[in-house]
Amino acid sequence: MTAKPLAIIAGAGPGLGAMLIQRFAAGGYHAVGLRRAADAAAESNVVAVDLSRPADVEASIADLVSHHGAPKGVVHNPSRLVIGPLAHTSLDQFEACWRDMAFSAAVLAHAVLPRMAEAGGGAFLVSGATASLRGGARFSAFASAKFALRGLTQSLAREFQPHSIHVAHIILDGIIDTATSRALHGLAPARMMSPDDIAETFWQTAHQPRSTWSHEIDLRPSSETF
Amino acid sequence: MTAKPLAIIAGAGPGLGAMLIQRFAAGGYHAVGLRRAADAAAESNVVAVDLSRPADVEASIADLVSHHGAPKGVVHNPSRLVIGPLAHTSLDQFEACWRDMAFSAAVLAHAVLPRMAEAGGGAFLVSGATASLRGGARFSAFASAKFALRGLTQSLAREFQPHSIHVAHIILDGIIDTATSRALHGLAPARMMSPDDIAETFWQTAHQPRSTWSHEIDLRPSSETF
Amino acid sequence: MTAKPLAIIAGAGPGLGAMLIQRFAAGGYHAVGLRRAADAAAESNVVAVDLSRPADVEASIADLVSHHGAPKGVVHNPSRLVIGPLAHTSLDQFEACWRDMAFSAAVLAHAVLPRMAEAGGGAFLVSGATASLRGGARFSAFASAKFALRGLTQSLAREFQPHSIHVAHIILDGIIDTATSRALHGLAPARMMSPDDIAETFWQTAHQPRSTWSHEIDLRPSSETF
Amino acid sequence: MTAKPLAIIAGAGPGLGAMLIQRFAAGGYHAVGLRRAADAAAESNVVAVDLSRPADVEASIADLVSHHGAPKGVVHNPSRLVIGPLAHTSLDQFEACWRDMAFSAAVLAHAVLPRMAEAGGGAFLVSGATASLRGGARFSAFASAKFALRGLTQSLAREFQPHSIHVAHIILDGIIDTATSRALHGLAPARMMSPDDIAETFWQTAHQPRSTWSHEIDLRPSSETF
Hints:
42% helix; seven-stranded parallel sheet; Rossmann fold; alpha/beta; globular; homotetramer
């Protein structure tokens, strides 16, 4: 086993996911990303795994734990954005949205929380969105999945905080500044959320003292109306 | 086509479902229940269909619509209660809970809402629960599914109310008085919710005048703490 | 004492207030409005009283109770709309808004709830607004007062429902169709809420069976975005 | 004028208030507390002022600003806890609770926000409580006042964030560990919130980068059920 505590970032895409790996690594963790096979590049700190496949996730986690011990920090961050009226949102998309964002969190929770509880605790953080709190007109699939994730996260907090695992839901109420979103939205960077600022909030939340644990935190650019 | 408007009660079990059929029938609708094949008895007003199978639901609805026209009232009411700590809640149960309560609502919405919009509107009502608003410690599967259903319902309201379809979410914050729950909970009837009182609220909500549509209503016995 | 049960409508202006008096009267109550002295016309069913003056309210209620017994239905409906940026909202306006909409409800609760509890119960209903749930940019005074009213109403529900008093908060998320609002907003009546439709909801809520009490109901025109 | 930016802690009692002064001072601010005359000790960094008296607050702020410039950080933290059934909560207590916790925030906002906006911005943070979100049975006065404060804070955020003032509401969902609360509640310190941990959250929130401003954060001891 290595001396460094293990951090797992599930949903380790090029924007926020990469920054989360970097922030936990900078803070002294052995930080590993989990990402769907098709995307997995030759990065040494990313494991290719489909987060919606329980047996695969269990195998990946078991392997990581055998080398590094139970994780002390876990972030659930996969995103699948589906926007459109109901008639243009297929039931397959509706299911895929839930599977990638909500079911995958249950899969991850099953794989890590009992191990973390047994090892003495840690932090389990989840990325929410504007649609976690409000189902907008063209967000039937995305909002439903993000609501599902929020309900799950609340239940996990109430079950696992007595076992010293801090469970928190961080609502990202704005557009994350990535190469993709700059191209897509045409917003000035000052109107978007910087991935490293978001990662800093995840880091601080994961390390709140036991006397002041947050369960839900919203983040938005100062320019965002809400 | 019959002269009576069509009402569809999806999730037509022996308690609230049966009462909803009865209430809409008493109000002048041709009221039909949808219920999973295995349970479908020889009742003339119940169609056996697995609500989580899109093709089957579409076929059933198409058949009903061909005889009675687009429905004017639709209720989504299936329930699958799963309670237990995460370790005793399998991922299959987690998925089944979502499939029966949230996915089935998306399936139903796909089958009925475009037809209702084209025919001039109506009401689409959904049964919520205490766990729609709060994820309790032993409710990870149930709360996640009920949150998913609430998020979906909000999106549907915002998309379809401009098309004259009233979409509402009725939160049942208590135990429904049925033969099963009497045996299970040992509560006095006065501490439970009467299925016909609940059905009356669904009826009234479905028929609110256009100047006063509710989106969310909570119901609980007067004796319930909240 | 009269044979009819007493209903009190506090905040009995010409729009919704008058309709509430009419609806409860039509339903068999002896319905009396309370309204600030300056406005009190020569209507036989309106008592002139400043609802923010405890001694005056107590005297008026005591007088009504001596003739009609404890009220069975009470509605709190005064409104004072203040809109504007903070710099244009004086602290006197901020206080007046709270005094007319929140303090007056505490005054009314003090005067009626113990009497109603002793007499066996009844209903105590409160008019909320969009601003009860969301503090908008130009609504610092109004939202703060409406939030205060909502918090009070929740506490009263939890304290008095065990004493058979149904306490509910009805959120009016739209503009009420009155002569004033037609002149002010220039909206078509179909985009506003009809006072008699709203009054009907108050009536139905006050008479929900004990197995299905609502605490919070939202109402809006079908055309209102939310 | 001094070189240090000014921080104002309104409601500077011996527990959290003192820690907030200390934390902002440690971070390089000239930190000043405001506290009701009767309590004001011979502390050099506390100004005696009744926060519910607009003219007095304005005079105190004007004096501070003339020496230190407009504040960069402001915290509203006064508390007046009233618990009891309605019949044991006088209307004077109801009003005092609101005056000390909600009206005082409007007074403070009037005195500081326009000056901060003109000077280029800053942070305005508010202490919430469990009762900011839920009106419990014996909390009619306290919950109503804390709801009022939350509604006001939301409005201020939406009005002043475009003027570069970060407005946030921090919900303290637990008992603060002070000499008084140890005597009163008999809880182990591990079951209470440490004032310096809370102060640290206020500090971090006041200094969030503009790309990730929080509006609402909850804090509770890891042992607290919620």
